[in-house]
């Protein structure tokens, strides 16, 4: 995928979870381009129907922390992130020092990152038994000479 002629490196992770009473798939995409880094979310019903999308644009990353609220199929979705202490490597997603959370109707549905205590404090969410399953990871990395693929079928995907 390219944005305005600029190559982007993308990492997309898919998670299967319950949204209210309906099962759904949430995709989390980290991107990195010359314009900066970005983060986007998509909530899709298992039928393939898109319920909601949200983008945290590269220029909003300069704030490094924030939140966004939206509605997906009648459920309130809250996204919180803190990337202020994040350490990035060559890939678009951070290595450590961050959290990203998704709450559906004030219930924690997804928690990414290693700053879990900060995430719980910020969102006010309890530590529920998450009914979230990591399903897949796709990487789209632009380069000049090296191509590789990797897959993992056990231990977290």
Commentary on this structure:
With 157 residues, the protein is mainly beta. The protein has one domain (2-140). Helix content is 5%, strand content 55%. It has one helix at residues 116-123, and strands at 2-3, 6-7, 9-19, 22-33, 36-45, 50-56, 65-72, 75-82, 87-88, 94-96, 99-104, 107-113, 133-140. The strands form four sheets. It has a five-stranded antiparallel sheet with strand order 6-5-4-3-13, with no helix packed on it. A four-stranded antiparallel sheet has the order 7-8-11-12, with helices on one face. The longest helix is centred in the C-terminal third of the chain and has 8 residues, at 116-123. Pfam families: DUF868. InterPro entries: DUF868_pln.
List the SSEs and their pairings.
Layout: E1 2-3, E2 6-7, E3 9-19, E4 22-33, E5 36-45, E6 50-56, E7 65-72, E8 75-82, E9 87-88, E10 94-96, E11 99-104, E12 107-113, H1 116-123, E13 133-140
Antiparallel strand pairs: 1-2, 3-4, 3-13, 4-5, 5-6, 7-8, 8-11, 9-10, 11-12
Radius of gyration: 16 Å
Based on secondary structure, the structural category is mainly beta
Q: Count all strands and give the number.
A: 13
Average predicted local confidence, pLDDT: 81
Provide the domain count: 1
List the strand order in the largest sheet: 6-5-4-3-13
Helix count equals: 1
Shape: globular
Order of helices and strands: EEEEEEEEEEEEHE
């Amino acid at each position: 995928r390219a944005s305005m002629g600029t190559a982007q490196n993308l990492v997309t992770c898919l998670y299967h979870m319950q949204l209210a009473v309906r099962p759904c798939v949430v995709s989390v995409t980290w991107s990195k381009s010359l314009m900066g880094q970005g983060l986007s979310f998509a909530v899709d019903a298992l039928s393939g129907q898109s319920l909601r999308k949200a983008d945290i644009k590269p220029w909003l990353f300069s704030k490094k922390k924030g939140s966004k609220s939206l509605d997906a199929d009648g459920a309130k979705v809250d996204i919180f992130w803190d990337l202020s202490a994040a350490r990035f490597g060559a890939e678009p997603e951070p290595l450590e020092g961050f959290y990203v959370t998704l709450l559906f109707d004030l219930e924690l549905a997804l928690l990414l990152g290693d700053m879990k205590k900060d995430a719980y404090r910020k969102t006010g969410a309890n530590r529920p038994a998450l009914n979230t399953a990591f399903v897949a990871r796709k990487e789209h990395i632009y380069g000049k000479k090296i191509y590789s693929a990797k897959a993992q079928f056990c231990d977290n995907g």
